[in-house]
TrEMBL record:
Pfam families in UniProt: DUF420
Species, as recorded: Halobacillus litoralis
A GO molecular-function annotation: cytochrome-c oxidase activity
GO terms (BP aspect): respiratory electron transport chain
Keywords (A to Z) from UniProt: Membrane, Transmembrane, Transmembrane helix
Protein name, per record: DUF420 domain-containing protein
InterPro entries cross-referenced by the UniProt entry: Cyt_c_oxidase_su3_a-hlx, DUF420
Length: 151
């Protein structure tokens, strides 16, 4: 099991679980726990992003090592996951800002959308992780720094 991808995938899953718990809490009108758990979810998502970004810069990205005829489906799926993660991050920031500005009406409307996008991000993220490292052996890893320095 590769250490950094396993760790970053763990943090995506953790943040999705925390969002689910935070949703249940606000349905039960437990406001302070909702706030704390959702902030923890955001910190967990940020931790994922920091690990992912450091690995991309220092170690690099790993290419798909599975069969060639599946590669195109993997690539489309990966792009879909990246799209979800990007939209989810923007929605997450908007949801948090609305909460902190106490625009609770809009926060309530955007919150469920953000949560569902984030659940889909986590599920597709785990699938990418499984396809890239567990079901098949990862392909070559190219470092961004190596690429820049020509090493
Ligand atoms: C599932 C959909 C969501 C609903 C229905 C919802 C609903 C609410 C409501 C009603 C409040 C006001 C509580 C109060 O009056 O003190 C609140 C506060 C808050 N929510 Fe959400 N929320 C949702 C999702 C989220 C998400 C995804 C996040 C984080 C990304 C989040 C972060 C917060 C925070 C930080 C506060 C506290 C704001 C403050 O007290 O300054 N919520 N939410």
């Amino acid at each position: 099991m590769p250490l950094l991808p396993t760790l970053s995938t763990f943090f995506i899953v953790l943040s999705a679980v925390l969002v689910a718990i935070g949703w249940v809490l606000i349905v039960k009108d437990r406001r302070d726990p909702h706030r704390k758990v959702m902030i923890a979810a955001a910190v967990s998502a940020l931790t994922f992003f920091i690990i992912y970004l450091s690995r991309t810069i220092v170690v690099g990205n790993t290419s798909f090592g599975g069969p060639d005829d599946i590669k195109i489906f993997y690539t489309i799926f990966l792009i879909f996951h990246i799209f979800l993660a990007t939209v989810g991050a923007v929605f997450g920031i908007v949801t948090l800002v609305l909460a902190f500005k106490r625009k609770i009406g809009r926060h309530r409307r955007v919150g469920p959308v953000t949560s569902v996008i984030w659940f889909c991000t986590a599920v597709t993220g785990v699938a990418v992780y499984l396809l890239l490292y567990i079901i098949y052996d990862g392909g070559t890893t190219t470092s961004m720094i190596k690429a820049i320095l020509g090493g």
